[in-house]
Amino acid sequence: MKNSSKYKRQYFLPPVKCMDWTEKDHVEKAPIWCSVDLRDGNQALVIPMNLEQKVEFFKLLVEIGFKEIEVGFPAASETEYTFLRKLIEEDLIPDDVTIQVLTQAREHIIKKTFEAVKGAKNVIVHVYNSTSLSQREQVFHKSKEEILKIAVEGAKLLKQLTEEAGADYRFEYSPESFTGTEPEYALEVCNAVLDIWQPTADRKAIINLPVTVEHSMPHVYASQVEYMCKNLKYRENVVVSLHPHNDRGCGVADAEMGILAGADRVEGTLFGNGERTGNVDIVTLALNMYAQGVEPELDFTDISSICKKYESFTGMTINERSPYSGALVFAAFSGSHQDAIAKGMHWLDEKKPEHWTVPYLPIDPKDVGRNYDADVIRINSQSGKGGVGYILETKFGLNLPPKMREAMGYTAKAVSDHTHKELMPEEIFELFKRTFENVVSPLSLNGVHFQQVNGGITTQVTSIFNGKEITTEAEGNGRLNAVSNALKKAYNFEYDLVTYQEHALEQSSSSKAIAYVGIRKPDGTLSWGAGVDVDIIRASIDALVTAINNR
Length: 551
Ligand SMILES: CC(=O)SCCNC(=O)CCNC(=O)[C@H](O)C(C)(C)COP(=O)(O)OP(=O)(O)OC[C@H]1O[C@@H](n2cnc3c(N)ncnc32)[C@H](O)[C@@H]1OP(=O)(O)O
Ligand SMILES: CC(C)C(=O)C(=O)O
Ligand SMILES: [Mg+2]
Description:
By secondary structure, the chain is α/β, with parallel strands linked by helices. The protein is 40% helix and 19% strand.
């Protein structure tokens, strides 16, 4: 990049150091949430939402639990205006929900906005004008005093029209482009607006401090917010609100640090839709709190259905890596992650700890309606025995011996590697059966008979190997051992039977059992087989034959 000298920092630090917020390490309670999906989100779409989409989106926001919703910029278009009228006239706004409307600080636009909200019960009228150095110079060609006057005139008109309407609308003011404004000047403008409004405990004013464009690291914003919180007049009657955008990718950090710095309220959107790189993602913010044990007071227990609705209303797509909501955010493909998750899940089952601490999963996917089977442990060529074993165990009830899990892990990895494909749980189960269960070639059995002799067992085994049938007799300290001895005698097989394990098969049929057999070959490596049968002896012999066939 050759042109870095073309740029300079565009933010301003407060005149005094404001870093008290660094004493805190987490957000202690949910802020007042305000969704701006229907306004800031909508104004950033290639094709803004139509009336029906806005109505459905509004209902979704109410269901999620938003109590303050910026429903639009009613003076912007007929759709915006009609939508608001529809909400009001069709009584679609619950009594505990306050609608918010945005207006520029221009007389005809404010007047149109007041027409639009007539008849609504709970209203916040939100007025803004840009205060930043670059907008003062380039857009408005006005001095600081003249820009302050725009804000004050706007504030006065809001007050006057509200009195004329006999309403008790609440007011919000945004020094738009706050992050490009000198903090002392932003403070002066906000205090001048507050002087007009004279907020009280019953009718607090909202001062919104937008990161209209994100120019700095989040700690700079936090210190700007702290400066405002410490110096705003009528502070106890002022709700300090944040409105971060995400130009540097730090919208969530801006909001979190801004709350630590004293803010009471956050404006944002679902999944971070909004101008350019978007507004702050309220899903992430809320679930970040949730993950630290703080009730977010918004309901994301069925995130997938919220995602689907959002995508259909806006035409946007949610990135697979979008925190908490993306399709892949709970997925672990890599072996060591899967191993740790599988062990963490076992720990959870056994110890039943008070808190969720499963490695690699910041929250329990089930809390947002995602499920372990489909979402968490997924198998490809990066996966290992832990993940494959976990799928066979949790989905198909197969509890393989540890070393056999390893063999199955490598088998699955090789298939995925060669096919360049993810393996679905059913494919893994099929692969297990094909590779390790009741394999009858080249060796198979045609008849096995036992006799109990002096505390030991004698067996007569008829087997076929490479098309040739042989019957041999042998003794053993148990039935499996006797059959193994008979087969060794018949074909001079060289191996040691080193692992035997069995368990009932609960998933496929309550009457069947599975046996696993591992044999050690002369070179020291292991070969594995499993047998499934209603008769556990038969299952164990089939497992042995499979292990021999796999050697
Ligand atoms: C950061 C944000 O998200 S702010 C919200 C932005 N959202 C939108 O703009 C969406 C809706 N807006 C619209 O539909 C239109 O802009 C309207 C209907 C509001 C106004 O339309 P128009 O008057 O035709 O155009 P426009 O917005 O470009 O007006 C620009 C004029 O308003 C002035 N202006 C812009 N914002 C403000 C403001 N907040 N307060 C006072 N004056 C303002 C400009 O200086 C400019 O003045 P000029 O005519 O003397 O040059
Ligand atoms: C209108 C204001 C609050 C805004 O959207 C912004 O500054 O980003
Ligand atoms: Mg905005």
